[in-house]
Design a protein that fits this description.
Blueprint: E1 2-3, E2 16-17, H1 35-52, E3 59-61, H2 68-79, H3 84-87, H4 96-118, H5 123-131, H6 134-149, E4 153-155, H7 158-170, E5 178-180, H8 189-195, H9 212-230
Parallel strand pairs: 1-2, 3-4, 4-5
Helix pairs in contact: 1-6, 2-4, 2-5, 2-7, 4-5, 6-7, 7-8
Length: about 240
């Protein structure tokens, strides 16, 4: 577990600290982070991959955070033409009024940052900097680092999918290395999966995050690999086909 931006004063037990700041700024009034913060978070994701990649045959990514479905919705909204009503959901349990307020805040925030993002030398990085979270930036960096190594990445839920979208916008060659594990119950997940041309392996109505969906999908991926590499072809098994009759 990498701590890339918690509000804790001291390092959290059981985590590897790699923070450049404690939390992000309020993106409804200013950019969520500085350019240096973004660079650090992207690199933190890459460092995490470097630490675990040797001997690995897949990377499972998950997230932990409160409020990060809002940041994920904002990043997706900044990188696509998807409207707010298609992206904003209940997160950790908002009621209808809460969802409406969340959508209003995100739409107002995107309007605030739209020109700055559009006019940037790299609009994707600028979207991450202005309306993203440190964990989303770190996940983006991890995806890019894994793809560069040729390491398949199992993409978990809504927040990790937002990072996947950013990673693919930064480097389209990363897309073939991504396996989308499930479509969660979070409103907007299906829309961003469609944006990526992704067909998820599972539809279980999950919304936990924390790589839980990726962990469930891993046995399916392993089974598919085993079938592909070990199952005999018709020719190898001497099975008659129509052409042989």
């Amino acid at each position: 577990v990498r701590d890339v931006g918690t509000m804790a004063d001291e390092p959290l037990p059981g985590t590897t600290p790699d923070r450049t700041r404690r939390g992000t700024a309020d993106f409804s009034v200013e950019a969520a982070m500085t350019e240096d913060d973004l660079v650090h978070a992207l690199a933190a994701g890459g460092r995490a991959v470097t630490d675990v990649a040797d001997g690995a045959d897949a990377l499972l990514l998950g997230d932990m955070g409160i409020g990060n479905t809002a940041a994920a919705s904002a990043v997706i909204g900044a990188l696509t033409e998807l409207a707010g009503e298609r992206l904003v959901g209940a997160g950790t349990g908002l009621d209808a009024a809460g969802v409406d307020h969340k959508r209003m805040v995100i739409e107002r925030s995107l309007a605030l940052h739209r020109d700055g993002i559009a006019g940037a030398a790299d609009p994707t990085q600028e979207a991450l900097r202005r309306v993203g979270g440190l964990e989303i930036a770190a996940l983006t960096g991890a995806i890019l680092a894994a793809a560069q190594r040729g390491l398949p990445v199992l993409i978990d839920g809504f927040v990790v999918t937002a990072a996947a979208l950013a990673a693919v916008r930064l480097n389209p060659d990363a897309r073939p290395w991504l396996i989308f594990c499930h479509c969660s119950a979070e409103h907007g997940h299906e829309a961003v999966l469609d944006e990526l041309g992704a067909v998820p392996l599972l539809h279980l109505g999950m919304r936990l995050g924390e790589a839980s969906g990726a962990a469930l999908a891993l046995p399916l991926v392993r089974l598919a690999c085993a079938l592909h590499s070990e199952m005999s072809t018709f020719a190898e098994a001497a099975v008659a086909t129509k052409a042989d009759r």
